[in-house]
Amino acid sequence: MSNRESKKTETPIVIYGREYPSIRDAIEKLKPDVSEVTIRARRRYEWTPEEMFGFEKRDRRHDREKNNNKEKSMEAVKEEKEKIVINGVEYDTIKDACADYDIDPKVVSNRMYQNRSKKNSAKWTLETAITTPTRIKPVYVRGVKYRTANAALNEIGKVTLSTFQSRKRAGMSLEDCLGLNDED
Q1: Could you report the per-residue pLDDT of 57-74, keeping only the tens digit for each?
Q2: Are 64 and 108 spatial neighbours (Cβ–Cβ below 8 Å)?
Q3: At 117, is the pLDDT very low, low, confident or very high (cuts 50, 70, 90)?
Q4: Reduced to 3 states, what is the DSSP secondary structure of residue 50?
Q5: Which conformational region is residue 136 in: left (phi greater than 0), alpha (psi within -120 to 50 degrees), or beta?
Q6: 80: number of CA atoms within 13 Å, CB side?
Q7: FRET label pair with 128: which of 37, 56, 73, 162, CA 20 to 30 Å apart?
């Protein structure tokens, strides 16, 4: 019963001028060297039926043309880009604005990327993405600034992560947690 239902909903496919009621029927009659899963995946990527079944080699020039058009559109955006204005101050690039607000450009990029997945909830504007401070607090160990305590552990720590964490939970100073005050 389910086999009949799937045949009804599936669209016919034409290979070398011959029409088949479904991909499955074409596979049964033509016996290609390619699996059904691969054929269906190729269909999603808009391959021709002959290419989907492996009877003809994929013409890669078509893919390159699509990529070239994307690159051209990115160049056009760069040429037409506007100045970035954050709190009334103009910046040439997002990187310059991030440097002024002491925020990693990757953080801003991630915040802007989150806009893609959010439907009707609050979205990040470029200004709020740059001006909203991160929750990361830098630490200073013996006069040297580290992005986080874990960054300090990775660079100068003399103990394992688990030892560091247990010392931190116990309320020890950062230098003690890192094992810098331990006697040899």
Answers
A1: 887 766 666 666 555 544
A2: no
A3: low
A4: helix
A5: beta
A6: 6
A7: 73
The span from the CA of 44 to the CA of 42, in Å, is 5
pTM above 0.70, yes or no: no
Q: How far apart are CA 178 and CA 180, in angstroms?
A: 6
**CA distances (Å), 146 to each of 95, 98, 142, 151, 170, in order?**
21, 18, 11, 6, 22
* Alpha-carbon gap, residue 89 to 163, rounded angstroms: 46
Nearest to 45 by CA among 64, 63, 24, 30: 63
The tokens 């056009």 sit on which residue?
76
- Distance between CA atoms of residues 39 and 142, nearest Å: 62
- Using one digit for the tens of pLDDT, what is the confidence trace for 156-166? 988 999 999 99
Residue 146 contacts residue 138 (beta carbons within 8 Å): yes
